[in-house]
Specification:
The structure is a single chain. The protein is α+β, with helices and mostly antiparallel strands and 247 residues long. The chain is 28% helix and 20% strand. The strands form 3 sheets. Strands 1-3-2-6 form a 4-stranded mixed sheet. A hairpin with an 8-residue loop joins strand 4 and strand 5.
Length: 247
């Protein structure tokens, strides 16, 4: 279940009542709260909070923002035998040197990660300058993937990327392996604030440690009556829409 599909089941006033801290995908808002903006990318409208985004992602202009790590980028291109992480070097390796995955030595993966980060920095600036419809540009040709952009603007810790123009063709199509659905739940309202999918083959101890670190970083202890928790559920790919279309 994607964040969009979860939120579509809730009335807009519920979203504002619970003061959802994330950037929310929605096509139904006729208004926009102060400090937020609605941006259209590939036919879908995203409610973006640049202030929160700059505190969590490295797309912002100030030095503090640039110190943030980008989300983990999961490559599910159809030509791969299995999904992989483009920037596994950003993981906190907990499995020892024998099992630690590094992409620093793989120039192609490292370069692709850099290209995606550069694209997101440019998109963030376009939004700050008042652009409300973001279209594919020539300099983004090799890294453009709407699902990646949506996930980055929503502040998710992991995002999908594919080099295929087809949203239905991924390397997960030929796999019977399960997916993990990770949800960050508002226990009081029993609603997911964040929700995203991770292929089972990438759900390692290092990635779980990364998710826990991300959870700790977004938990605001100054807010009263918080009862947030992280829920991880193994699901069948056939019971969920494709990762590139589920947002």
């Amino acid at each position: 279940m994607s964040l969009l599909r979860s939120l579509e089941r809730s009335a807009p006033q519920e979203l504002h009542y619970h003061n959802c801290p994330c950037n929310v995908l929605s096509c139904d808002y006729s208004f926009c709260p102060s400090g937020l903006c609605i941006v259209e990318i590939a036919g879908k409208k995203i409610l973006v909070n640049l202030a929160i985004l700059d505190r969590r992602m490295p797309w912002g202009p100030d030095p503090a923002s640039r110190q943030n790590k980008p989300p983990l980028i999961m490559d599910i291109s159809p030509g791969l035998a299995a999904p992989r992480l483009l920037n596994a070097h950003d993981l906190p390796h907990t499995e020892g040197p024998d099992n630690a995955i590094s992409t620093v030595g793989n120039s192609r993966l490292y370069y692709m990660t850099s290209e995606i980060c550069d694209m997101m920095t440019e998109i963030r600036q376009l939004i700050a300058d008042g652009e409300r419809v973001i279209e594919k540009r020539r300099q983004w040709h090799s890294c453009w993937c709407p699902a990646t952009i949506w996930g980055c603007l929503m502040g998710l810790p992991v995002v999908f990327w594919s080099d295929s123009e087809s949203e239905k063709r991924t390397c997960l199509s030929d796999q019977a392996d399960s997916l993990w659905e990770v949800e960050w739940i508002d226990g009081e309202a029993r609603l997911p604030v964040y929700s995203f999918l991770i292929p089972h083959s990438l759900m390692t101890a290092s990635l779980k440690a990364f998710l826990q670190r991300w959870t700790d970083s977004i938990f605001d202890r100054h807010l009263p009556h918080q009862s947030f928790y992280m829920l991880q559920t193994r699901v069948s790919p056939r019971s969920r829409p494709g990762p590139l279309t589920s947002l």
